Amino acid sequence: xxxxxxxxxxxxxxxxxxxxxxxxxxxxxxxxxxxxxxxxxxxxxxxxxxxxxxxxxxxxxxxxxxxxxxxxxxxxxxxxxxxxxxxxxxxxxxxxxxxxxxxxxxxxxxxxxxxxxxxxxxxxxxxxxxxxxxxxxxxxxxxxxxxxxxxxxxxxxxxxxxxxxxxxxxxxxxxxxxxxxxxxxxxxxxxxxxxxxxxxxxxxxxxxxxxxxxxxxxxxxxxxxxxxxxxxxxxxxxxxxxxxxxxxxxxxxxxxxxxxxxxxxxxxxxxxxxxxxxxxxxxxxxxx
Amino acid sequence: xxxxxxxxxxxxxxxxxxxxxxxxxxxxxxxxxxxxxxxxxxxxxxxxxxxxxxxxxxxxxxxxxxxxxxxxxxxxxxxxxxxxxxxxxxxxxxxxxxxxxxxxxxxxxxxxxxxxxxxxxxxxxxxxxxxxxxxxxxxxxxxxxxxxxxxxxxxxxxxxxxxxxxxxxxxxxxxxxxxxxxxxxxxxxxxxxxxxxxxxxxxxxxxxxxxxxxxxxxxxxxxxxxxxxxxxxxxxxxxxxxxxxxxxxxxxx
Amino acid sequence: xxxxxxxxxxxxxxxxxxxxxxxxxxxxxxxxxxxxxxxxxxxxxxxxxxxxxxxxxxxxxxxxxxxxxxxxxxxxxxxxxxxxxxxxxxxxxxxxxxxxxxxxxxxxxxxxxxxxxxxxxxxxxxxxxxxxxxxxxxxxxxxxxxxxxxxxxxxxxxxxxxxxxxxxxxxxxxxxxxxxxxxxxxxxxxxxxxxxxxxxxxxxxxxxxxxxxxxxxxxxxxxxxxxxxxxxxxxxxxxxxxxxxxxxxxxxxxxxxxxxxxxxxxxxxxxxxxxxxxxxxxxxxxxxxxxxx
Lengths: 288, 253, 293
Hints:
The complex is a heterotrimer.
Chain A: H1 2-39, H2 45-49, E1 52-53, E2 58-59, H3 62-93, H4 98-110, H5 115-129, H6 136-160, H7 164-172, H8 177-184, H9 186-206, H10 234-244, H11 252-287
Chain B: E1 5-16, E2 19-30, E3 34-38, H1 45-51, E4 62-70, E5 73-74, H2 82-88, E6 89-92, H3 103-113, H4 119-132, H5 136-139, H6 152-165, E7 170-174, H7 182-195, E8 200-204, H8 208-214, E9 217-222, E10 225-231, H9 232-237, H10 242-248
Parallel strand pairs in B: 3-8, 3-9, 6-7, 7-8
Antiparallel strand pairs in B: 1-2, 1-4, 4-5, 9-10
Chain C: H1 3-36, H2 39-42, H3 45-50, E1 54-55, E2 63-64, H4 67-98, H5 101-116, H6 119-138, H7 146-170, H8 174-182, H9 187-198, H10 200-216, H11 219-224, H12 242-249, H13 258-292
Antiparallel strand pairs in C: 1-2
Helix pairs in contact in C: 1-13, 4-7, 4-10, 5-7, 6-7, 7-10, 8-9, 10-13, 12-13
């Protein structure tokens, strides 16, 4: 009898846990179903390649796609080298001392700083103090700093997977430390770094709060012609279309279409990252 | 003694953080000889051999007292570049560690990082070192295949070839056969005997038969101390210290 | 230049790269402080911390009380945790102890995908999907209120809580589990009475990081909570959090006015709160790993 009660408790318990997982999956399913079912209808070649017209009630979202692309490029230019450099320091040079622990603590804390606070920082540092104005450069740089903790962590993980023996072997052959890192560590870590970095950039591409005041524009008739121009961006465009537009219910399909394109973009980037990781694993197996 | 001393450890104390791993080591390494270092696991023998080309510096909290000289010059002196030492004192590791590159590139690597740009010279060196390490016949048709496709024994001989290509004067072997099968082990041992004509060799091994087969001098390490150091035949036939005798007769290990 | 100096120089370069991270963190703090301090030339700190009204546009006497938005932020954060903590831990326990390896292979990437959904998309769905549902169920006008924000924030915090809790559960030594099973406990009792308690500090750290994420989240609350500048009264009423206040007002305010500086003061408070939350999570987490080791 006691055993039977125990058994019933176990089954009920496990089913509760199963239910939790199911709820999470359902949330995801609802999000995707809603966006796809209501957003797919408006997607057309014109929607993707034409600017908005008639007070943004018609036309496409091309400038927003382009703007997001430009900003993400600036983000990458800043976050990737700095992230790799910091990871190289931590994994290859740093000794286990107070400074190193402080750097690691700073990275963990930076990753917890709210995105809107990065926005405030970007306004002060890039827009105001550096005189970049509200521009692609300011917004990209702000997102770059925000992405830095992710690229550092990803790069360090990738460096950790390179066996110690590659470094030792190179050093024992008379390579200097930097030679051993450059020729015998980095080449094997690059695919892993790439995977993590693209994941980080996909987050940056979807961020809105940091670009609100650093360069994103409501509407621009022309596409940006320099990194000092303002720009339209997909996430900001979605925000505008769903809350700030003068006729929100009229432009709802455009908002859905924008959401779909944004999600598709983010997941395309994720997919690329996953494919790189998969090929990396396969290559690893062929070697092992 | 009859031969010229190439390397000399004098009063070497070595610490990892607060832990002393080596105590008062005095040991001479003779030219064109094979010097074997034996002892139970954890006795400090691998630690010691890594001092000889300053590989110990990869560990951040290591500290060394005493001196180690190469041809009379202190290799630990602050003005000495460890890279210079590692070019003269090569090392073959316990586990074969070819780089995930082709056989050719593995050997060319050491030359390239040492500034050699002449392709013909590199090519000639690759062939020469593969021949020296008795691997040439087995790989000459597939120099551009991945080194990771070679068997364990072949990989280890490739690592030896890689080391020889940069023309070291002393070659350190850190348990080179620990992960090899008996046939591969035999090949590597034969190679070591061949190499001692041109090089000064130090080999760490936990295999006493191996030490007896290949070495001219043997040092027995126990708990961080060099218990006994002498000609190999003396160590294996008339050890002076009780601990050496117990070890080589297999009473502990 | 000789080789040794060149190597030294390269190492210095990477060292500087590492130190840069510290400079950025300190820089964020200092610049927020620099832009926040001028606000207190005109408004006292006491005013900022105790006044229950935030009304910078008042014609006669603008008030800059932090409390309404602080309470709003805490409300939606607590609300989100009520949903996300049990759901997150339950899912983590499922993934670590119930799911077959095959299911886990599929389910874990799903959690990552959830983490990858941009917050503005979640906020958008709060308006178009969740809002109408809440409106119908509770009879409120458009369903844009603290409840809506809480649920959305829970969605945003879930991936963090799930994956870190699962790591914590996964790092419980197998020996504990085996000992419990050997004593006649079944798998469920082992999970609840041995594994979860053993992983408690790791799970706690995961929840705190999820909380940090929720407090700092901007777009979802900005879009889904109604943004009324009054003191929050219930979960069914609109609220305006610290993050949404900054997001809405910084775009409209003139630079270098008291209002402008006040928004930085709010940002500074936000920074300090998340800093402390993350630091606590860090300390708890490290205690946890030390015990494991």
